[in-house]
Amino acid sequence: MMEIRYNPIVDEWVLVSSDRQVRPLQSKVSKCPLCPGGVEFDRDYDLAVFDNLFPAMKTKPPKVNPRNEKLLKNRPSFGKCEVVMYTSKHDSSMSRMPIRQIEKLIYVWEDRTKELAKHEDIKYIFPFENRGKEVGATLSHPHGQIYAFPFIPKRVKAMIESQERYYKENNSYLIPDIARAELMAEERVIFELERFVAVVPYFARFPYEVHIYPKRQLHHFTEMSTEEKFDLAVVLKVVTSKYDNLFNEDFPYMMAIFQSPVNPTSEAFGFHIEFYPPKRDKDKIKWMASVETGTWTFINPSTPSDIAKRLREVPFVI
């Protein structure tokens, strides 16, 4: 079963993909399928991109039986699900990779954004990473994914509306303005370079949530200068290194990369990156309970400025 179904209660689309139940688990395979010589690769590689073997969307999706009911709507799962290999080294991670390797990864994200946007029916391109079993990662080899949606996801739609409203009211872009506000406040900044800043945002939903903001308005990777790509690589290295050194472990997180939609784009939408770690302490998980899941209203058990101070003091390796 693979199709997209419409939820009229909240005006959103849901991906149904039962084949994903048979995805491989690291603990149940003798050799990592993402390492050179594994199922996916018969030779060594530096970085690599391939179609997910267990996708939620395909460019040639199976046909669906259309529903005639007014409220029960479905459509084929058109889209693209890609896996992005950060490195061939199994025991590496973004926190341990050389900055130049992360920089090359940014160029891969840029290239895939360009290529996927050529599909006129693709509306949103979302690179992300799930790291750690705590957030459902089934393989530990350093990798991320890219989902190219045929619709605008509900939370992204809310971001677009908010940023476009802000631009109309202020004739200014929201994401760079938030970056400036956080820099002026200082207390939640954990790392800053000339072109990017990493903060625990004033409105953080998760205890160790970190956002990376550019200091000027950017829509996509494709607009970044060479210097901006390098600075972003450094900031990504610093943030993930601080995470790992916080509790001296491979720190789990979800990394969400937000770009402007495509076909068409939004002039007001600002590129930025958000990290959502599931931990609230070394041995405690911040579970998504009824309030968060049901109402989309988060309860943060920590004070963002206190967490920022703690992360700011954590050493990191460049």
Quick one: overall form? globular
What fold name goes in the CATH topology slot? HIT family, subunit A
Mean pLDDT: 94
Structural class: alpha+beta
- Share in β-strands: 15-25%
Architecture (CATH level 2) name: 2-Layer Sandwich
How many strands in all?
Answer: 14
Description:
With 318 residues, this protein is of the alpha+beta class. The chain has one domain: HIT family, subunit A. Helices cover 26% and strands 21% of the residues. It has a nine-stranded antiparallel sheet, sandwiched between helices. Strands 2-1-4 form a three-stranded antiparallel sheet, with no helix packed on it. A hairpin with a 3-residue loop joins strand 8 (189-192) and strand 9 (196-199). Helix 1 (99-116) crosses helix 4. The longest helix has 21 residues, at 226-246. The mean pLDDT is 94.
Compact summary:
The chain is of the alpha+beta class and 318 residues long. The protein is 26% helix and 21% strand. Helix 1 packs across helix 4.
Descriptive tags:
6 helices; 14 strands; alpha+beta; 318 residues; 21% strand; 26% helix; nine-stranded antiparallel β-sheet; three-stranded antiparallel β-sheet; HIT family, subunit A
Detail the topology: elements first, then pairings:
Elements: E1 2-7, E2 12-17, E3 48-51, E4 74-75, E5 80-85, H1 99-116, E6 124-131, E7 143-149, H2 154-170, H3 174-185, E8 189-192, E9 196-199, E10 210-214, H4 226-246, E11 253-258, E12 272-276, E13 279-281, E14 284-285, H5 290-295, H6 304-313
